[in-house]
Amino acid sequence: MKHIRLSIIGFGVVGQGLAELLTTKQALLRRDFGLEVTLISVANARHGFIYREDGLDIPTLLELAAARRPLTEHPGIQHWAHPLDGLQATGGDVLAEATGTNLRDAEPGMSHIRAALAQGMHVITANKGPAALAAQELFALAQQYGVQLRMESTVMAGTPVLSTIREGMAGTSVSAIRGILNGTTNYILSAMSTGRDYREVLAEAQALGFAEADPTADVEGYDALAKILILAFLVFGRSLKPADVFRQGIISITREQVQRAIENDRRIKLIASLVSHPEDDTLEAKVAPIELPLSDPLSRVDGVMNAITIHSDTLLEVTVIGPGAGRIQTGQGLLADLLAIAHTQ
Ligand SMILES: NC(=O)c1ccc[n+]([C@@H]2O[C@H](COP(=O)([O-])OP(=O)(O)OC[C@H]3O[C@@H](n4cnc5c(N)ncnc54)[C@H](OP(=O)(O)O)[C@@H]3O)[C@@H](O)[C@H]2O)c1
After folding, report:
1. Pairwise CA distance, residues 185 & 219, whole Å
2. Alpha-carbon distance 88 to 86, whole Å?
3. In sequence order, what are the beta bridge partners of 291?
4. CB contact at 8 A, 149 and 122
5. What are the tens digits of pLDDT across the range 204-228?
6. Separation of CA 254 and ligand 1 centre (Å)
7. pLDDT at 212 (0 to 100)
8. What is the pTM of this model?
9. pLDDT at 210
10. What residues have CB less than 8 Å from 59, skipping those under 6 apart?
């Protein structure tokens, strides 16, 4: 039996989703992967970092988190006020980093990931900030310390996009990628295609929990832009900056524009794209609302669903459709990364 000692920093929707999967999938992990995962430490912003050498009890942690009670009520733990101090004192085999995405300076995730890699821990992360702004530095650090950095759930949550391209499609030459990489905007545009107004649909999406109270990151295209930066590095080996990406959100799309597109057998979608131009060695990066013909598989992806089409020499077009968010769906991406690491141990 292999044994992994896991630390989770960021114990919100996604961190708890991963923890839940570790209990619901415990028998499967033992049977199919010969793997025992012990959750040794957990941290959030309010309660700091807790550690128990023999492992934390996940149902207890989930109960405390659901009741918004201090995680420090877990019996038999050691506690540090600052996650970095706790992590440095206690270590582990793998860090799952799931704090909030910050596209200004990628903190606090950046410091957590740097510290873990530098002390020889593998890192799996759902956090788009470090992945979008500093992938090159972090992968170099991982290489320096002989550990892995995996980030499947940063793009389309647990839907396997990065592993499909990097592992499943190994050996292809990818020429372009086009995707619906933000569920909130796809929900809004899909609902507008039934004749409703942007404002009304946005309010509904907020009430249903599909859109944040401040929807800027989604509707202005910043969330999709972050994913484009991640794909640019992982698929094309290019470190783009946010300013290198043409970005247009959906806030100025009117009901009339959406209806006119439908009358012409087209659908407006927020498309994030990367197109390689080998003739001048450039990579064109864009997030913008585009009218797609119905023959394009992306035109038929509705609601909060995400999708990506990968254009390559050997497979021509491959389209992957699946969930792009959610507690268990994103936890699944982290679990797949954890299993990929366990496989190489
Ligand atoms: N939710 C999704 O469906 C989804 C999908 C794909 C990717 N992601 C990414 O996954 C990450 C987590 O998302 P989420 O939905 O789980 O967010 P969330 O519910 O807001 O949870 C964030 C967690 O990070 C903790 N945190 C913040 N600052 C911290 C610090 N300095 N030290 C330790 N913990 C800190 C928060 O602590 P408190 O609990 O004390 O506030 C909270 O537990 C984000 O980067 C997000 O973009 C999410």
Report:
1. 6
2. 5
3. 268
4. yes
5. 999 988 888 899 999 999 999 999 9
6. 33
7. 87
8. 0.97
9. 84
10. 23
Q: CA 270 to CA 179: how far, in whole Å? A: 8
Strand partners, 289: 270
What is the DSSP secondary-structure string of 226-243? HHHHHHHHHHH-----GG
Q: How far apart are the first and last CA of the chain?
A: 11
Q: Is residue 179 a contact partner of residue 307, using CB atoms and an 8 Å limit?
A: yes
Tally the C-alpha atoms within 13 A of residue 180's C-alpha that lie toward its C-beta: 36
Strand order of the β-sheet with 78-80 is: 78-80, 48-51, 35-44, 2-9, 94-97, 122-125, 149-150
Concerning whether 227 is annotated as a catalytic residue, the answer is yes
Q: Which residues form the pocket of ligand 1, taking CB atoms under 6 Å from any ligand atom?
A: 9-15, 43-46, 83, 98-101, 108, 126-128, 153, 157, 325-326, 330
Query: Hunting for tokens 């012990």 — which residue is that?
Result: 38
**CB contact set of 119 (below 8 Å; sequence gap of 6+):** 87, 88, 91, 145
Question: ω into residue 278 within 30 of 0, thus cis?
Answer: no
Span of 75-79, 128-132, 207-211 with lowest mean pLDDT: 207-211
Total count of residues recorded for the chain = 345
**Whole-angstrom distance, CA of residue 316 vs CA of residue 310:** 8
Tens of pLDDT along 291-340? 999 999 999 999 999 999 999 999 999 999 999 999 999 999 999 999 99
CA of 127 to the centre of ligand 1 (A): 8
Dist. CA 317 → ligand 1 center (Å) = 34
Beta-carbon contacts of 308 under 8 Å, excluding residues fewer than 6 positions away, are 155, 156, 161, 177, 178, 179, 180, 181, 319, 320
